[in-house]
Write a structure and sequence with these properties.
Layout (H helix, E strand, L loop, with lengths): L1 H20 L9 E7 L6 H10 L3 E7 L3 H11 L8 E5 L3 H6 L22 H4 L11 E6 L3 E5 H6 L6 H7 L5 H17 L11 E3 L3 H8 L7 E2 L2 E2 L4 H14 L17 H7 L2 E6 L1 H10 L7 E5 L9 E5 L7 H11 L2 H11 L32 H9 L10 H10 L10 H16 L6 H18 L1
Parallel strand pairs: 1-2, 1-3, 6-9
Antiparallel strand pairs: 3-11, 4-11, 5-9, 5-10, 7-8
Helix pairs in contact: 8-10, 9-10, 10-17, 15-16, 17-18
Length: about 450
Amino acid sequence: MKKQLTRMRVMVLGLASALVFGILTPSYATTTITVWTYGDVIDKSLVNTYEAAHPGINIRAINQGSPAAVKQKFQLYKNSSSVADVIVYETDDAGYFRHYGSLFKNLNNYPGASSLSSYYLSWRWNQGVAENGNLIGLPTDVGGLAVAYRKDLFAAAGLPTSPSKVGKLWKSSSTTTSWNKFISVGKQFQNAPATKSNHKVKGFIDSTGTIFKAALNQGTKKFYSGGSPALDNSQLKKAFNIAAAAATATPTIGARINPYGGSDWTPGLSSGAFAVTLAPAWQLDYIIHRAPSSRGKWNIAAAPGNGGNVGGSQLAIPKKSQHASQAWDFISWYESPYAQLKMFKKRRLFPSASVLYNPYSTCVGVTTGSGASATPALTSADCNYVRSFKDSFFNNAKVGAIYADSALNLHSIPSGRLERQFTDAFQNQIGRLEAKKVTDPTVAWNKAVSDAQTVARRN
């Protein structure tokens, strides 16, 4: 008992001394940065790295489940102090959020923002520039676009299997011609004799519906012109006609399997239900983890047309954010070239920071941020990593070079508040063509335009 009392006296005296002389380890007040997100946009390990360098900052990522749910929650709370500090919006909703630019912080007013844009793809950067000219969102990854194909099924159909030769099957300086060649290859594949290798095939491509967005994103105009809807323009019609030709091809080339995680899509990756899927870079991670037994059966080739993109998002700070300065520090670090390179190495999320792979950019030595948020200067190894990356799961395909060229070839496209609804109107008619609920592409086109115009009038 006496020893215990003595130890207690020592502890009390020690505590008193520490209080007097101020030698206790400081305790930090915690600031919580709330993020409304979806999917895997906010990576826990990368967040942990940031938090470790910023004691007292807690990043609370609340997954809403889908981009639509994030948009809906923002609509409910956009004028409330209960809104998140950071909103993650998908590029398909870029037009909507750009329209409401006055409800977000102008990121150009924060330290270091003015020097960042030169590090990124200009068309991806512009998806974060609001209609009023303010910068409201920093770009995350870029989807890019390539063709993921089953080399065993191509061989069974008598088609070439090397990426260079596969890409040449549909290579053309004309976007329309390139896609028509792709459709012709699909017909050839479908006409091949049945073998033990291809007896489970339901179609050449998982869904012809994906072709519409792919072709549309290769142009310079979609649904808007000068800030107003332009729903009967030549570029939109060209993309629709390309997809319609695929949907109505004889023999049928689509397996009618919804891509990117549908209930039939995941098992189809392994079983060989389809030979081709139009794959943004982030989809490669899906294939690897959902169909591990297919390792070595898939390869990657350049997509038809001129580049391509599906997916991507922006990180924005609402004007009602309670911790806007800290939120800016986080998102500018989280989307820095340094951090995007980390995400590419971990999950094959292709960087929108083109300084990492654009051969005409000055990459070595690039650093962003200051203080605890200063990123290490990029090295020569960092700057060569993306473009030289080959993926062993996909037969050592030159994934880095293929997706880099895909992303660098695209241009900015005007967008607007109703872009997602307009996309759905045209996509629905492609689906009806594929399901043979309508057989005349002209009828489908007219219906799509009419439905989109109805959306415009009601909104």
